């Protein structure tokens, strides 16, 4: 926990952003034209490795911190059979970045949830420090690209659960200063089945001002739509597939997939048998469906490894991404769409969130609202 206190005193990134120029909008930074990187006559798996070497996977959800918490000893650099994720398998799977979940088991709430989230974040930083040749803690799109270019896997802290806030915007700002970049809008009184309360809307506005991204996986349709209306930044669904293909509470109905695409959000399809099905073809079906409804700019990947869930055949651990990409190439996905799926869409969401924060800080001071005044 001492590391967290040090970060509070030494982090200056949030303040430094205030001095940066405010971009007019994200369209001022159009993507560069895509150049094919593989031989169109090569076998799909060979092409998949070539594409991923240039456009690695940004994995939207990893349960590694919680999984390692329960191991008495581990070695991620050499390989660790006790988990689904280690440095050799990340490299074999061409994983360039991952979001490290700070979610907690059910039943932990209130002050215990705040403290447990801090412990999780402290553990994550200890894990990264213990793998200096393989992992690097990053906080934005530019740092993620730098880490990839240096041969490291970029690790972004989050998503954290809404209970980690303790209904305090001050704690939200502290979590951001400590590195948390994604917050799930579920499991709190202000983000329930009935949607966002007035305090919940203020949480979203403050997240926009900071540059913290909202995760809507598992949220109600009312919370989705109210967040779309309030948020000026794109949102993530870190673990959501297509409900029309496989019923699951965290999967999205077709109408919400369309609205998510229109709002510039990102649906990160999980590689779990429960949500997507037992085979790699089932996962590809979900990716096809989400791309068709939300658009190629709004679909991503969430390995959901080390989160206590079973995985489809041929996708048992973090080394298996080339098999999935090969299946998409067999289905005639364009390389440009694969590059968006694996890396480009996450980079876009991170950059647009940062742009929104810079503009919001010009207009808005840190909020002093509290839940008693707004929802009492």
TrEMBL record:
Residues 1-42 are annotated as: Disordered. This is Dipeptidase. Gene3D superfamilies: Metal-dependent hydrolases. It comes from Streptomyces ziwulingensis. Residues 1-10 have a biased composition (Basic and acidic residues). It comes from the Bacteria. InterPro entries: Metal_Hydrolase, Pept_M19. Pfam families: Peptidase_M19.
């Amino acid at each position: 926990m001492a590391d967290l206190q040090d970060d509070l005193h030494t982090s200056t990134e949030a303040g430094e952003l205030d001095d940066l120029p405010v971009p007019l909008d994200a369209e001022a930074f159009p993507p560069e034209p895509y150049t094919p990187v593989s031989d169109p006559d090569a076998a799909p798996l060979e092409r998949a490795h070539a594409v991923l070497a240039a456009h690695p996977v940004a994995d939207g959800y990893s349960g590694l911190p919680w999984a390692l918490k329960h191991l008495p000893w581990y070695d991620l650099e050499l390989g660790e059979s006790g988990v689904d994720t280690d440095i050799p398998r990340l490299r074999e799977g061409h994983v360039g970045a991952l979001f490290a979940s700070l979610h907690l088991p059910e039943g932990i709430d209130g002050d215990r949830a705040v403290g447990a989230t801090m412990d999780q974040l402290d553990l994550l930083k200890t894990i990264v420090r213990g793998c200096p040749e393989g992992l690097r803690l990053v906080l934005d799109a530019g740092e993620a690209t730098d880490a990839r270019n240096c041969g490291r896997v970029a690790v972004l802290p989050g998503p954290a659960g809404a209970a980690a806030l303790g209904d305090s915007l001050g704690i939200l700002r502290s979590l951001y200063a400590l590195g948390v970049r994604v917050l799930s809008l579920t499991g709190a009184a202000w983000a329930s089945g009935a949607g966002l309360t007035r305090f919940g809307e203020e949480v979203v506005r403050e997240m926009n001002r900071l540059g913290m991204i909202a995760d809507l996986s598992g949220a109600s349709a009312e919370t989705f739509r109210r967040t779309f209306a309030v948020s000026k930044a794109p949102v993530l669904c870190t673990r959501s597939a297509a409900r029309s293909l496989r019923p699951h509470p965290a999967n999205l109905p077709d109408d919400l997939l369309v609205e998510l695409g229109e709002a510039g959000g990102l649906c990160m399809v999980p590689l779990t048998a429960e949500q997507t099905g037992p085979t790699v073809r089932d996962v590809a079906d979900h990716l096809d469906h989400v791309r068709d409804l939300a658009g190629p700019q709004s679909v991503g990947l969430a390995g959901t490894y080390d989160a206590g869930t079973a995985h489809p055949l041929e996708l048992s651990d973090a080394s298996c991404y080339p098999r999935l990409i090969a299946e998409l190439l067999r289905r005639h996905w364009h390389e440009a769409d694969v590059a968006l799926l694996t890396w480009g869409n996450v980079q876009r969401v991170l950059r647009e969130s940062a742009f929104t924060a810079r503009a919001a800080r010009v207009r808005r001071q840190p909020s002093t609202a509290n839940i008693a005044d707004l929802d009492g």
